[in-house]
Design a protein that fits this description.
796 residues, mainly beta, Phage tail protein beta-alpha-beta fold, Maltoporin, Chain A, 22-stranded antiparallel β-barrel, 9 helices, globular, Beta-barrel_TonB, iron
Length: 796
C-alpha cells in the first residue's frame, strides 16, 4: 500500500492536503468525511507550523481536508498527544488558532475562521507577531518543543497509565514539571526541579546525593528513567541526569504498583528524557556562574531520511566548578546520549544509549551541639578533607518498541540495561559538637557495582462499543539486579578539636575489599482497564508481584534467599462535571518486601500500603490554566522493628498514617504572564513510635512566575520571580533541635532574539540561611548561599 502525500489545485482557490492510501485494490471507496474518520489512532505531534501538523495528521489518518492556504500560514498548531479520531486530532491542533473544522454538505472537511475570532496571517506586522509570540515563556527552541509548546502546562503523563491519557482525564494526582519550567528557572539538579511538585521534600545526603520524601514517607522514593527502574547504593543514574537532557519530570503520588511495583507508599519520581523530534533544531548552551561554575552543552535532533521516519537525538553536556560554598572541591559532570527512532504508521522503535560520569562534593551543612541547638549559619570550610565526594559512572542501554498489530491492538515492549559503579569517599560527622567545639568524624570509603536489567511487555487493546471507549492492558514486567560492594576493611574516626579553627584531615587511603553482594529478581503481571462513557472515566487494575532476593556477606553462610508475593489492586473514578471541572476519587494498594527475619524462622510479611484520594481538576481559561486539588489518606502496616526479647530478630508493628492536602496551579494567567505554583499540607503519624519526632515540615509551597514584556520597545525581554517556602521542622528524634521556617527568593532576567537567548538567574536573592530536612543533628544540610548564573543559548 503506497502512501501519497501532495497538494492538489482545484478549480476553486482552495488547496487540498491529501494523504490517501491507494484504495482501488481494496474496493473500499472513502466517500464521506465520517467514513474517513471513524477509527481512533495514537498521535504524538509537538507544536509546530499548522500546515505541517495538518499534513502529518492527514498522512497518518487518510483524511481529506481542504482549506485556504492564507488561513494557516504563520499559524502554530497546538500539540496533539493521545488517542483521537482524525477530526478530533485536527480540532486539537487548531486550539487557540481562531480556526475550526467543519464538514461541508458534500461530506468533505474544511477549515474556516471561528465567528468573531481573528487569526495570525502574513499581513501581521513584526511588532504584532512579537506580541503574539511573547505569550509563552521566553525559552529556547528545544525547551519549547520538548514541553509541547504549551508553556508550563503539561498535557499528559508519559508512563503512569501507559495509555498517554491526558492528565485532565486521569483519576489520580500526577505532577509534571516540563522543560519550559526547568529552563526558565535555570534548574541544575533534580532537587531544583522537584521544588515545583507539591508534597515532595528533597533531603540532601551526607555523601553528596539527595533522597526524596513524597507525602510524608521518608523512605527514599525511587527515581525511574522513562518508566524503567535503576538502582544504586546512594543514587540511581536517573537522579543525576543533567537537566539539559530532561524533557520533563513526573511525580506519581501514592502507591503506584502498576507503574513501579514495590515502591514506597508516598509515590515515585520518573525522569522523562528528551526524545527524537521530526522538526530539526540544534542548540548550543553555555553557562557560567558562582564558584567558577562553567557548562557547555549541545542538543540536536531531526529527521535523517526524506520520509522523516528515521529520526535522531543527540545530547552532550559537560560542567565543572572550582568548589562549593563550604570549600569542598567542586563537582564535575559529563553526559552523552545518542538516540535513534524509526517511526511509521505501524512501528515505533527507539534505541538509546547514555553515558554518565559524575563527581559530587559533600554538600553544605551544619551540625548540632550536644547541649541542643546547632551552629547557626554557614560553615565556610570543610569538616573533613576538601576532596570528600560521591562518584558515579553509569552506562545505560534502552530499547522501546510499539508495534501496531491491527487498528485496535498494539504490542509495547520497553527494555533497559544499566551498569553503574558508585563510590563514596569521605569523612562524615559521627556526633554532635561538644561544649569545647570538638567534633568526631567517621571515615567511610566504599565502591559498589550495580547491574540492572528491566523489561516491560504488554498488549494494549482499544475498542469503542455502544458509546463506551475501552483501553485494556495485559502485561508482564521483569527486572533483575545484581550488586557487589567493596568497603575498607576497618573503620576509623578522627576528632576535630575546634570546628571554627584550622582543620587538616587527611584523605582516606585504606584499600577496599569485598564485603557483600547479592541479587534481586522481580516479576509482575497485571491487568488494567480504562473505560470512558460519556463524562465518566474509570481506571482499574490488579497486579501480582513476586520478589526474590539473596545476599552473600563475608564471614557468613550464603543466605537461602527470600521470596515474597503480593497483590496490588487500584480503582479510580472521574466525572467530567463541566468542560472545566472534573472531580475524581481513587483507591490504591501497594507493597514493599520485608527482608528481615522473625524469631523462630521465616520472613516478616510484606509492608502493605493503602491510599484513599479525592480531588478536583480544573481546566480554566480555554485550557491555558490548570488547577488541581487533592485530599489523601495513606497508611501502611507491618513496619519492622527490632525484637526487644530476641536480639538480631524483628517483629511487625502497626506502621504510619499520612494525611494531607495538595494544590497545584500552572499555566497562563494572562498573555505573557505564566505561573507554576503549589502548596502542600502533610500530617504524618508513626503509630509504632508516636513520641519520635517526624523530620519533615507540615507546610511546603512555591510560586514561580514569568512575565514577557509585550510592548514593541521591550520585545524579547522578560522577568521571572519565585518564592519557595517550608514551615519549621524538628531534626533528630528528641525535639532538642528545631530549624525555623524557610523562604528562598529566586530571580530570573530573560532576553530572547530569533536564534539567541540569555537567562540571568539569581537563586537565594536575599542570601537567607536555608536549612533542609534531616533525621540527624550531626548533619543538618543547608541550601546554597546567593548564587548567580548566566546562561546563553544559540539555536540553528
Amino acid at each position: 500500500m503506497k502512501l501519497i502525500s501532495h497538494s492538489v489545485n482545484w478549480s476553486s482557490p482552495k488547496v487540498i492536503v491529501v494523504a490517501l492510501a491507494t484504495m482501488t485494490s481494496l474496493s473500499v471507496p472513502v466517500t464521506s468525511a465520517y467514513a474517513q474518520s471513524a477509527a481512533a489512532q495514537s498521535y504524538h505531534l509537538p507544536s509546530g507550523p499548522l500546515d505541517q501538523t495538518l499534513l502529518r495528521i492527514a498522512q497518518q489518518s487518510g483524511l481529506l481536508i481542504s482549506y485556504e492556504p492564507a488561513l494557516v500560514k504563520s499559524l502554530q498548531s497546538a500539540p496533539v498527544e493521545g488517542n483521537f479520531t482524525a477530526p478530533e486530532a485536527i480540532k486539537k491542533a487548531l486550539s487557540n488558532t481562531g480556526l475550526e473544522l467543519v464538514a461541508t454538505p458534500s461530506g468533505k472537511w474544511t477549515l474556516r475562521p471561528v465567528a468573531g475570532a481573528s487569526t495570525t496571517s502574513t499581513t501581521e506586522t513584526p511588532a504584532h507577531k512579537a506580541i503574539a509570540d511573547a505569550e509563552l515563556p521566553l525559552i529556547s527552541v528545544a525547551a519549547t518543543a520538548d514541553s509541547g509548546g504549551t508553556g508550563f502546562v503539561a498535557e499528559s503523563s508519559a508512563t503512569f497509565s501507559r495509555t498517554d491519557t491526558p492528565l485532565s482525564e486521569t483519576p489520580k494526582s500526577v505532577s509534571v514539571i516540563n522543560a519550559a519550567v526547568i529552563q526558565s528557572q535555570s534548574a541544575q539538579t533534580l532537587s531544583d526541579v522537584l521544588r515545583n511538585a507539591s508534597g515532595v521534600v528533597a533531603r540532601p545526603g551526607p555523601y553528596g546525593v539527595p533522597s526524596f520524601a513524597i507525602r510524608g514517607y521518608v523512605g527514599n522514593a525511587p527515581v525511574m528513567s522513562d518508566g524503567l527502574s535503576s538502582y544504586g547504593s546512594a543514587a540511581s543514574p536517573a537522579a543525576l541526569t543533567p537537566t539539559i537532557a530532561i524533557a520533563g519530570v513526573e511525580v506519581v503520588k501514592g502507591p503506584s504498583a502498576i507503574m513501579a511495583a514495590d515502591a514506597p507508599p508516598g509515590g515515585v519520581v520518573n525522569v522523562i528524557k528528551k526524545a527524537p523530534q521530526v522538526e530539526p533544531f540544534h542548540e548550543v548552551q553555555v553557562a557560567y556562574g558562582s564558584n567558577s561554575f562553567s557548562q557547555v552543552a549541545f542538543d540536536s535532533t531531526g529527521a535523517i531520511d526524506e520520509d522523516k521516519r528515521l529520526r535522531y537525538r543527540f545530547v552532550v553536556s559537560a560542567d565543572k566548578s572550582s568548589e562549593n560554598f563550604m570549600g569542598y572541591d567542586g563537582g564535575r559532570h559529563f553526559y552523552i546520549a545518542p538516540t535513534l527512532q524509526w517511526k511509521d504508521r505501524s512501528t515505533d522503535l527507539t534505541l538509546g544509549y547514555a553515558h554518565t560520569v559524575t563527581r559530587e562534593p559533600f554538600p553544605q551543612y551544619t551540625v548540632g551541639y550536644a547541649r541542643g541547638g546547632y551552629v547557626d549559619g554557614y560553615v565556610e570550610h570543610p569538616l573533613g578533607n576538601r576532596g570528600d565526594h560521591f562518584s558515579m559512572t553509569a552506562d545505560e542501554l534502552t530499547a522501546k518498541l510499539e508495534q501496531k498489530l491491527s487498528d485496535n491492538l498494539t504490542f509495547v515492549s520497553k527494555n533497559g540495561y544499566t551498569s553503574t559503579t558508585q563510590g563514596q569517599d569521605g569523612w562524615a560527622a559521627a556526633s554532635t559538637v561538644t561544649n569545647s567545639n570538638a567534633l568526631t568524624l567517621l571515615g567511610f570509603k566504599s565502591s559498589a557495582n550495580y547491574y540492572t536489567a528491566n523489561s516491560q511487555n504488554y498488549l494494549r487493546l482499544k475498542s469503542d462499543l455502544a458509546g463506551v471507549k475501552s483501553t485494556t492492558l495485559v502485561g508482564v514486567d521483569y527486572s533483575y539486579m545484581h550488586y557487589v560492594q567493596y568497603d575498607r576493611n576497618s573503620s576509623s574516626t578522627t576528632t576535630i578539636p575546634d570546628i571554627f579553627g584550622t582543620i587538616n584531615v587527611a584523605p582516606i587511603s585504606s584499600p577496599l575489599t569485598y564485603q557483600f553482594g547479592g541479587q534481586t529478581q522481580r516479576v509482575g503481571s497485571y491487568l488494567q482497564e480504562q473505560l470512558i462513557y460519556s463524562n465518566l472515566t474509570v481506571l482499574a487494575s490488579i497486579r501480582r508481584d513476586s520478589y526474590l532476593s539473596s545476599t552473600n556477606i563475608v564471614g557468613r553462610a550464603p543466605s537461602g534467599g527470600m521470596h515474597q508475593t503480593a497483590y496490588s489492586p487500584s480503582l479510580g473514578l472521574m466525572y467530567q462535571l463541566t468542560p472545566e471541572i472534573a472531580p475524581y476519587v481513587n483507591w490504591n494498594k501497594g507493597f514493599q518486601p520485608n527482608n528481615v527475619t522473625a524469631y523462630g524462622g521465616g520472613l516478616l510479611a510484606p509492608k502493605q500500603s493503602e491510599q484513599f484520594e479525592a480531588g478536583v481538576k480544573f481546566n480554566l481559561m480555554d485550557d491555558k490554566l490548570e488547577l488541581t486539588t487533592a485530599l489523601y489518606h495513606i497508611d501502611y502496616t507491618n513496619q519492622s522493628i527490632s525484637d526487644p526479647v530476641h536480639r538480631g530478630f524483628y517483629i511487625s508493628t502497626g506502621g504510619a498514617v499520612s494525611q494531607g492536602l495538595e494544590v497545584e496551579l500552572k499555566g497562563q494567567i494572562m498573555p505573557g504572564l505564566n505561573v507554576i505554583a503549589q502548596y502542600a499540607y502533610n500530617n504524618y503519624v508513626q503509630d509504632y513510635a508516636p513520641t519520635v519526632k517526624v523530620n519533615l515540615p507540615h507546610h511546603t509551597g512555591s510560586i514561580w512566575t514569568t512575565y514577557n514584556f509585550r510592548s514593541p520597545a521591550l520585545q524579547g525581554f522578560g522577568v521571572g520571580m519565585g518564592v519557595f517556602m517550608s514551615s519549621g521542622q524538628d531534626v533528630g528524634s528528641t525535639g532538642n533541635y528545631h530549624v525555623p521556617g524557610q523562604t528562598e527568593t529566586d530571580l530570573g532576567l530573560f532576553y530572547k532574539m530569533e536564534k539567541y537567548s540569555l537567562n540571568l538567574s539569581v537563586k537565594n536573592l536575599f542570601n537567607h540561611k536555608l536549612y533542609s530536612s534531616s533525621t540527624s543533628a550531626s548533619f543538618i544540610p543547608m541550601g546554597p548561599e546567593r548564587t548567580l548564573m548566566l546562561t546563553g543559548t544559540y539555536d540553528f
